[in-house]
């Protein structure tokens, strides 16, 4: 990683150790291998009140009882080199993550980096080449998120996506380039953007695309108290999205404060049974639509950590997957992630 300045992204995420410790559970099915395909690492806040979630903190979560054998790091605008040319500033994040090693941590087997996919092809290829080299064999995809809402002030983590991004011809050219280079496209957006994403997926069937966080059904601001209406339209969206064979679905990220469940406001964190009762139908509908071979459980930590502890979250996933056969469980917990991102069958 080069020297230089890097930005601080301040999404208001608190680690809340004492609060999370109020809900403890025995580990279910502790020998089941898990590939966690979606997590971040960052240091943000102020020098007086820093919020640090780097590899040691993540290792404590992944080592809390479940058998997490591999992970995939997802870009979060951490450690960018602001002294580099604009199209190469994010390369420092990839280089930093690729340099991380810790004997007690599950290895980061894949890296999803950020590149501006609207760049001219010569600059885009230069950036992708730089990320590939810096990733030391671990670059597996790119995320240039489309998340955009007309009332960002109501959101704890407002998206940075440009209006109409998915329909932008330059952006589509960039997403197509990823497919040609054998890289996946991850995205994050809000539920009211699902149809725009559907148009993108249909237009570029040669690029494998991963829908993060169920399309983030919002539950705050103008969407508060509208969960039933939102879910009704969302169910149709998932059924239509699943008709695109190039799409995969990440199952997680529903516990962000912007989803509106309000877990973070309770006296104690939710249990796995609480999550199953409240959210199980969202998961089962997506699995019914896509099938286990195109779905993967994700932690989305530390963002979802504002609401639930790591060991409780994966207990919830295991309870939710109980009706499935062994092959289907293997897909949901590890095999879909490995196949989607081309991860090795065993850890480094």
UniProtKB/TrEMBL annotation:
Alphabetized Pfam families for the sequence: Amidohydro_2
SUPFAM superfamilies: Metallo-dependent hydrolases
Residues in coiled coil: none
Every Amidohydrolase-related domain range: 35-343
Signal peptide (from-to): none
Family note: Belongs to the metallo-dependent hydrolases superfamily.
The protein, known as: Amidohydrolase
Native source species: Arenibacterium halophilum
Lineage, uppermost ranks: Bacteria, Pseudomonadati, Pseudomonadota, Alphaproteobacteria, Rhodobacterales
């Amino acid at each position: 990683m080069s020297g230089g300045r890097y930005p601080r992204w301040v999404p208001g995420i608190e680690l809340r150790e004492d609060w999370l410790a109020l809900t403890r559970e025995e580990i279910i099915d502790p020998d089941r291998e898990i590939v966690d395909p979606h997590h971040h690492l960052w240091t943000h806040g102020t020098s007086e009140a820093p919020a640090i979630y780097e590899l040691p903190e993540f290792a404590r979560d992944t080592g809390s009882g479940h058998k997490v054998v591999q992970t995939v790091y997802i870009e979060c605008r951490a450690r960018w080199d602001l002294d580099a040319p604009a199209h190469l500033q994010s390369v420092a994040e990839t280089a930093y993550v690729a340099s991380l090693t810790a004997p007690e941590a599950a290895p980061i087997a894949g890296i999803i980096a950020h590149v501006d996919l609207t760049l001219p092809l010569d600059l885009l290829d230069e950036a992708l080449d730089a990320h590939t080299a810096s990733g030391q064999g671990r670059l597996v995809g790119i995320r240039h998120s489309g998340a955009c809402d007309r009332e960002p002030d109501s959101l704890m983590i407002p998206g940075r996506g440009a209006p109409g991004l998915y329909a932008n011809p330059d952006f589509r050219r960039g997403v197509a380039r990823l497919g040609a280079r054998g890289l996946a496209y991850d995205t994050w957006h809000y539920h009211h953007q699902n149809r725009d994403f559907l148009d993108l997926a249909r237009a570029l069937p040669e690029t494998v695309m991963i829908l993060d966080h169920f399309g983030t059904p919002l539950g705050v601001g103008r969407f508060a108290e509208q969960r039933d209406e939102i879910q009704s339209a969302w169910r149709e969206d998932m059924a239509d999205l699943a008709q695109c064979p190039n799409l995969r679905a990440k199952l997680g990220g529903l516990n962000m404060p912007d989803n509106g469940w309000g877990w973070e406001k309770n006296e104690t964190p939710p249990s796995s049974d609480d999550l199953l009762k409240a959210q199980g139908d969202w998961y089962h509908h997506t699995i019914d639509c896509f099938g286990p071979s195109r779905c993967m459980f994700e932690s989305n930590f530390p963002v979802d950590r504002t609401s639930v502890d790591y060991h409780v979250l994966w207990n919830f996933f295991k309870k939710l997957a109980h009706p499935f056969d062994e092959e289907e469980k293997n897909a949901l917990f590890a095999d879909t992630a490995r196949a989607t991102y081309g991860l090795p069958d065993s850890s480094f």
